[in-house]
Amino acid sequence: MEKIGVYPGTFDPVTNGHLDIIKRSLVLFDNLIIAVAENTPKQTFFTVTERVEMLKICVKNYSQVTVESFSGLLVNYVYQQNASAIVKGLRAVSDFEHEFQMALMNRKLFHGSETIFMMTSEEYSYLSSSAIKEIALLGGDVSSLVPEIVVDALRMKI
Ligand code: COA
Questions:
Q1: Which of 90, 105, 118, 151 is least surrounded by CB atoms within 10 angstroms?
Q2: Measured between alpha carbons, how far is residue 129 from residues 5, 61, 85, 112 in Å?
């Protein structure tokens, strides 16, 4: 049976840290679905269509990766996709509490829900989408932290 993983997030915008998790999680799954949240409590800088498009360009060389947007409960989406597990990245201890709560809540909402945590690579442990937006808005150089398509998209938006 095919093993399908779902990597959910806001991806506003995708960073090299996210791409690192995507590439490394491919050893665990036959197919990985990157699930871009449509409705999020966060005020997003990029529209969901823009976030999905940027990710699609970034993963175009990986035949086993697809990018989709989703709305509603993550566990319902994971069930509909027949996925075995949710993949999340952990950067620091500070991520743990939030992630732990979400994983347990997702299991409460759907009993079969499993979450796999991947430790971020050291060089991306300080990276976040908010930091990228802030630096870009203040005129800083983010080209070593995000894919080229994101550098261009940030420049266009700003
Ligand atoms: N590299 C770089 N950044 C990373 C990272 C990595 N490896 N891993 C996490 N991050 C950062 C992101 O850039 C983001 O930064 P920001 O806060 O500056 O924007 C931050 O970590 C959080 O990521 P985000 O993608 O917003 O994830 P989240 O943990 O807040 O969860 C959903 C987002 C979509 C998965 C979650 O809200 C959800 O499941 N929504 C659906 C509704 C639902 O089911 N709710 C019940 C949940 S229990």
A1: 105
A2: 22, 23, 24, 30
Which of 115, 146, 117 lies closest to 132, judged by CA?
A: 146
Q: How far apart are CA 81 and CA 8, in angstroms?
A: 13
Residue that is written with structure tokens 């947007």 in the block? 69
Tokens linked to 75:
């566990």
Mean pLDDT of residues grouped by 10 in the chain (158 residues)? 96 98 96 95 95 98 98 97 96 90 96 93 94 97 97 96
For ligand 1, atom 4, the nearest C-alpha belongs to 128
Cβ of residue 51 lying under 6 Å from some atom of ligand 1: no
88 alpha carbon – ligand 1 mean position (Å): 8
- The pLDDT assigned to 94 comes to 82
Retrieve residue 103's tokens. 């994983």
DSSP state of 95: H
Would you say the CB of residue 74 lies under 6 angstroms from ligand 1? yes
Ligand 1 atom closest to Cα of residue 8: 35
